[in-house]
Design goal:
By secondary structure, this protein is α+β, with helices and mostly antiparallel strands. About 45% of the residues lie in helices and about 15% in strands. The strands form 4 sheets. A 4-stranded mixed beta sheet has the order 9-10-11-12. Helix 8 packs antiparallel against helix 9 and helix 9 crosses helix 11. The chain is elongated, with a radius of gyration of 23 Å.
C-alpha cells in the first residue's frame, strides 16, 4: 500500500475520506488503482477503508467505521451542521446496540433536514446545545475485540448527547433496542437516570415517545450484558414477577454461594442467562456445576436461558414456570 495512505489510515482507525488522501498528494488514478487491486475498500463515494481493518471488524465495529468515515468528509467539516445521532452516536462510545440498522444516522443543527440514502439516514434537526464532540470509548464501555483498539484513534466527532441518542434509539427501533443501550450507559456512567428523565421530558420524539418513556422507566444498570437485558425485558413482557438482579445467595451459615443474574425470591427460583452456549473449559464447567448443586441444595430451582431461547418466548415462559413448580415441590 502507498505509505502516505497507510499513515493516514493508521492515524484514524483504518478509515479516511477521499479528500484527505487526495490532499496528501495521492492522485485520483493512484487511489482508483489501490481500490481496484484490493489494497483499499471504498464503502461509498468519499469513504475509504483499510481492508484488513474492515475484515477484522465485528458488525458493531463496522458501524463505527462507517460513522467515522462519513464524518471525516464534508459532513464533519468545522462549519458543518451535521452530527451523528441514534446508535451511530452510541457506537463511538462503544455502547452496545441491538435490533438497529446499518445506516449511519445523523441530525442537523441548522433547522434543516438533510437527504437520506442507503448509507445515511438524516433525521429531524436538533438544537446545537444537544450536540457535543465524542471520541474514544470511555472507561468501562469497551468490548475489546478484533478491531476495537484500532478504532479508538482519530479525531473526536460531533454527536448528539448520549441521553438523547439513547432515546432516539428507543423511539425509532423499540423498547428492547433502547434498553440494551440504556442499561450499559447507566452501568458505565455515560449517562445518569436524571439525564434520561430530563431528556425524555423535554424532547418531542413523535410516534416513538411512548417507547422512550418506557425505556427510561425500566432501564437498570444491574443488567451486565445485552443478553441479560433482553432476558429481563422478556420476563417482564411475559408478565412474570419482577426478579432481583445480581442477587447474592448465601447458605444458612452466611457463606457466600454465588451471585445470580435473576432471583425470584418468593418463588425460590434462579434464572441465569447463558451468554456462552457451551463451556469449553472443563474446570469452568465443573465449578459451575458445583455452584448450581449448592444453590439447589438450598431449595432453589435453577433455570438457564440461552440466546436461542430469547427467540422463543413460550419456551422461556415454560422454563421459568417449570422452575417455580420445582421449587414449590422441593
Amino acid at each position: 500500500m502507498n505509505p502516505t495512505v497507510r499513515t493516514i489510515l493508521g492515524a484514524q482507525g483504518g478509515v479516511a475520506s477521499t479528500a484527505q488522501i487526495l490532499a496528501a498528494g495521492v492522485s485520483r488514478f493512484q487511489l482508483r488503482r489501490l481500490v481496484q487491486d484490493g489494497h483499499l475498500v471504498r464503502l461509498r463515494r468519499g469513504v475509504i477503508v483499510d481492508p484488513a481493518v474492515w475484515r477484522a471488524a465485528a458488525p458493531w465495529e463496522k458501524h463505527v467505521i462507517r460513522a467515522r468515515g462519513l464524518m471525516l468528509g464534508p459532513a464533519g467539516a468545522p462549519d458543518s451542521p451535521v452530527a451523528l445521532s441514534h446508535h451511530s452516536a452510541l457506537a463511538l462510545l462503544r455502547i452496545p446496540v441491538h435490533g438497529v440498522d446499518d445506516r449511519v444516522h445523523v441530525v442537523r443543527t441548522d433547522g434543516r433536514r438533510g437527504q437520506s440514502d442507503g448509507f445515511v439516514q438524516c433525521h429531524a434537526p436538533v438544537a446545537p446545545e444537544l450536540v457535543r464532540r465524542a471520541g474514544a470509548a470511555p472507561p468501562g464501555t469497551e468490548d475489546r475485540g478484533s478491531a476495537s483498539q484500532q478504532l479508538d484513534v482519530g479525531p473526536p466527532m460531533r454527536a448528539v448527547r448520549p441521553a438523547l441518542a439513547l432515546l432516539q434509539v428507543a423511539a425509532t427501533f423499540g423498547v428492547e433496542s433502547g434498553l440494551v443501550s440504556a442499561d450499559c450507559a447507566l452501568r458505565c456512567g455515560v449517562v445518569t437516570r436524571e439525564e434520561l428523565e430530563g431528556m425524555v421530558g423535554s424532547r418531542r420524539l413523535g410516534n416513538g415517545a411512548a417507547n422512550a418513556r418506557t425505556v427510561v422507566e425500566h432501564a437498570d444498570p444491574g443488567s451486565e450484558s445485552p443478553g441479560e437485558t433482553r432476558c429481563r425485558w422478556l420476563l417482564h413482557v411475559l408478565g412474570l414477577p419482577r426478579p432481583v438482579l445480581q442477587a447474592v445467595v448465601r447458605d444458612h451459615a452466611g457463606q457466600f454461594i454465588g451471585r445470580v443474574d435473576f432471583l425470584f425470591e418468593a418463588e425460590r427460583t434462579i434464572v441465569e442467562f447463558d451468554g456462552l452456549v457451551k463451556y469449553t473449559d472443563r474446570q469452568v464447567l465443573v465449578a459451575e456445576k458445583a455452584r448450581e448443586d449448592a444453590l439447589r441444595s438450598l431449595g432453589y430451582s435453577v433455570v438457564r436461558i440461552t440466546w436461542k431461547d430469547l427467540a422463543h418466548p413460550q419456551r422461556v415462559l415454560a422454563k421459568v414456570l417449570g422452575g417455580f413448580r420445582a421449587a414449590a415441590a422441593a
